[in-house]
Hints:
By secondary structure, chain A is mainly α. Chain A has 14 helices and two strands, in the order ααββαααααααααααα. Chain B is globular.
Amino acid sequence: MDHSLDPGESLTSKRFWDWFIFPGGIWIALLFAIPLFLVLALSFGHVDDFGRGVYGFSLDNYRDVFDATYIPVLVRSVAYALATVILCLLIGYPVAYFIARYGGRYRYALVAALVIPFFVNYLVRTYAWVALLADQGLVNNLLVDWGLTEAPIQMINTPFAVVGGLVYGYIIFMILPLYASIERMDPSVVEAGKDLYGSPFQTFIHVTLPATQAGILAGCVLVFLPTVGDFVSAQLLGGPDTYMVGNLIQDQFFAASNWPFGSALTVVMMLFLAVWMVFYLRRASKGEAEVL
Amino acid sequence: MGASPFYKPRFLKVFTGLVYLYLFIPIAIVIVFSFNSQKSLQVMDGLSFRWYTEFFNDPTLMDSLQVSVQIAVMTMIISTIVGTALAIGLVRAHSRTSKGFNVLMLVPLITPEIVAGISALLIFSQLGIALSIWTIVIAHITFSISYVTIVVRGRLASIGVEVEEAAQDLGASKWQSVRLVLVPALWPAIVAAGLLVFALSFDDFVLSFFTTGEDAQPLPVRIWSMIRFGVSPTINAVGTLMMVVSISAVALAVLIPRMFGRRESGVKVLTGAEE
């Protein structure tokens, strides 16, 4: 390896640096890009008599995806993901704004503190919510003890619990880009806005929001993408009535063992997400600070 | 929204405080109840190390712990080397290759993990590779390379080509200027990236779930089946221990660049911000 990297006369300057790209680039191409096409190929296949997926040229799996049985699951996944994005934005914006504008010398400590929960295992964090929200869980026990309700309120197995778990799991992807864009904003622009629009609310709508638009968009995409494919929250905090497309896909690869149908579901999901992924990649390749 | 909530720091302060509580209460619950002497997840009966003892005496769980550490270490080593090289290449080369891979490199990071898991499962089954600890490592490396690349690239952007050019003027070959000048300057970022990748790999569930075979199941996969069998206090103990491992790794990742006299870069490592 060392020898090939030695800049002999034959190597032009560009070729020299390309050698650094190849190992990682080829790894990602071979083990990430090409397998995606395998998923696409298998989605046109079927299951043989032994329950194994075999390749083919049929659209049956896609007909099944858009069957009346599964449409509600697809719609629900998008609805939950949108609700998660909106909640993350409403919760995350004030927090990011406070840290960026008023955090002072504690700014970095505050950001680090936000990131810590994200490095606690997602299953363990979701499991903590199961313990909190269960019918005999801590929250219900407190509510009953304080006389706020007679009987425990059902919180687990509801859409609220599933969306709550998703917000908890992914809100960091919203706050970090928001923080980056608010921090970069010139405070004097806000002052100018106050002179121009008078009320702080008007200033927020006309100055602050547009100035931080890049962070808002990046945060929304970064929360939306993993949320749509999530199956942990719906599995642990929900039930069959709250299953998302991720649960359906995961089922096909394990319990139901129908890989071709699972692949078709994956392709449909990816096509739906591709618009947002391309949007994000275009901004990222232009080097916008918020998106990384 | 009211008249003007966003310009009153007091409102913002209280709101931010509540959000921090929301983020930390579930984690605090896990830690506190991991020391409960009883099985209850509602009432603390007394302090004990009962659930930790149970964890350390469970051969299956200890096996999983070992598997998880092995996977994280191997992922860390390989992806740090490959990802650092990729970062250097992407920043220094201004070729068509580098433009293409600059975009491709980001795709694993924004693809839902379940898709990456299924793709990995399909390529292994297509190639006839039996699922083992190695298939998990390979799957983990794929997304870790991108992660390392972004962290190292952030640091690299702040290092001009002048130093390398100076080294070459003094007679160093191009390869020597990378090895003797560039890599030492990048060292804090490389170590930080490695530690972050260790934590991410150690905690990863979804990719491992799709690429785990019959035996050698990493801890998160084991926890998944434990949770589905019902709530068990041992999970609190395992969760607390995993927390200690990954947060130590992340804390080191933040502190190491600071030890090299760069106050801000620790947080920039976490946020991935360009310098």
